Amino acid sequence: MSYITTMSAGRDSALSAAPTAPKVTLKARYLYVYNLLSFVLWIIVLRRGAQPPPQDPSLLTYVRWAQTFALAEVLHALFGIVRAGVFTTAMQVASRLLLVCGVIWLFPEMLRADPRNAWAYTGMMVAWGVTECVRYGYFAAFLSRGADAAKVPSWLTWMRWVLAVSLALCLRKR
Q1: What is the C-alpha separation between 44 and 48, in angstroms, rounded?
Q2: Among candidates 25, 165, 8, which has minimal Cα distance to 81?
Q3: How many Å apart are CA 108 and CA 94, to the nearest integer?
Q4: Judging by beta carbons within 10 Å of its beta carbon (0-12, 13-18, 19+), is residue 137 exposed, middle or buried?
Q5: Do 145 and 28 meet the contact criterion of CB atoms below 8 Å apart?
Q6: N or C: which end of the chain has fewer CB within 10 A?
Q7: Phi-psi region of 146 (alpha: psi -120 to 50; beta: other; left: phi over 0)
Q8: Model's pTM, two decimal places?
Q9: CA-based Rg of the chain, rounded to a whole angstrom?
């Protein structure tokens, strides 16, 4: 009789200890919204920037917003919101801001002066757009699924790593 009582009590306690959904923190919600907004901005840039030569005058506005919005990533690293190096993040963001605000925005006539410049600009927009859409899309999907990488669509994980490895191989010293 005591064996049956013990088994019954064990089963009831096992049922009551069922796993609960992980609690979503304010940090995770903020990072989800940040990544989702960045993804949307880069979708707009990619869609408008993939047409050579750049015909859409509002494209540069979206690019400036997307790149300026990335300044928040330096703050994320600085305050420990994400695990990223402050210096590395700052250098990446600064290099893009230099191109967007320090060259293209100050000298827009460069794009009209030589068709090769327009093609270079289009290439830059497409390269940035594709990589950033995949990156921000991955992180938004990751955070929306309880920060569980196994729940992110496999094609998105594949794209993230293929692009990262391809870029690393293109930039390695020869």
Answers
A1: 6
A2: 25
A3: 19
A4: buried
A5: no
A6: C
A7: left
A8: 0.77
A9: 23
Q: What is the pLDDT of residue 4?
A: 46
Nearest to 32 by CA among 164, 116, 129, 152: 152
For residue range 102-147, list pLDDT tens digits in order.
888 777 777 777 777 777 888 888 888 899 999 999 999 999 988 8
Vertex 22, ends 17 and 26: CA angle to 5°?
145
Cis peptide leading into 22, omega within 30 of 0?
Answer: no
Q: Give the pLDDT confidence of 18-55 residue by residue, as tens digits.
A: 555 567 789 999 999 999 999 999 999 888 887 765 66
